[in-house]
Amino acid sequence: MGIYDLAVLFLGIFLIALVFVRFDISRTGVLVFLVLAIAAYLAVFFSVHHHIRKSCVILADESLSDIRSMIMSWGPAAPLLSVLLMVLQAVIAPLPAFLITAANGLVFGVYWGTLISWTGAMGGALVSFMISRLFFETFTSKIRGHRKGIEYIERFSTKYGFRVILTARLLPFISFDVISYAAGLSTIKARTFLLATGIGMIPATIVYTAFGAEMGKMKAYSEMLFTSSVLAVLLLILVWTVQGVYRRRTDSRRIQDRDGNNT
């Protein structure tokens, strides 16, 4: 059994334990469910772990042609398995996601490759987010003396969470998986995280898929992605700054009018 198999094995058991630690495992019923859950997971894992190892090894070799051949070998199930491969990649970092996206472009074309890659990336982001969120909620539920710090995280996540996630997703040099795990450690709502992630992933997904479908234009596509992403982030910052200034002036004017009416 290789390192990737062990990583998936222990991660699964760890997540099951995180779920059940929220309950009173001294109760017989809860303990029985815990044992059954672990047994079911082990049965599934040992029936597919050799496929997981093979896929991870191919991804780690970073050979686009090998990844393409692997996806094509899956036949009619290739779209679904490619989505699951994206999820696996997100959980077992730092396997390269952009190569899967490029391979999808080669196998399925730009349109369907983009859709499949976007769906898989969304699934991977959600799984990473939920893993981190589960850990965060379990950990913070045991803490009583740091409530002020948690409340600050809640206020910041509510006010700026969407903007931070969207900006980070638009920048291709920021790790996709790190963003997902970091977001889970905040109190941003899952739907806000998914909305910002879904919008922010579109440019990079299209570019990498097109790169796969048109290998000769790799350099041009990479430069275009970097330039357009930076320009988009700068534009967003400008819009948000103007919006903030306008809101503050509007609020100040309302306060002044209210004070004038009171006098």
Short description:
With 263 residues, the protein is an all-alpha fold.
How would you describe the overall organization of this protein?
This protein is an all-alpha fold. It has a domain at 96-249. It is built from 9 helices and no strands. It starts with a helix and ends with a helix.
Sequence of secondary-structure elements? HHHHHHHHH
**Number of alpha- plus pi-helical segments:** 9
Shape: flat
Give the helix level as a range of percent.
Answer: over 70%
Beta-strand percent range: under 5%
Topology:
Elements: H1 3-20, H2 28-61, H3 64-72, H4 78-91, H5 97-140, H6 147-170, H7 176-184, H8 190-213, H9 218-262
Descriptors for this entry?
mainly alpha, flat, 84% helix
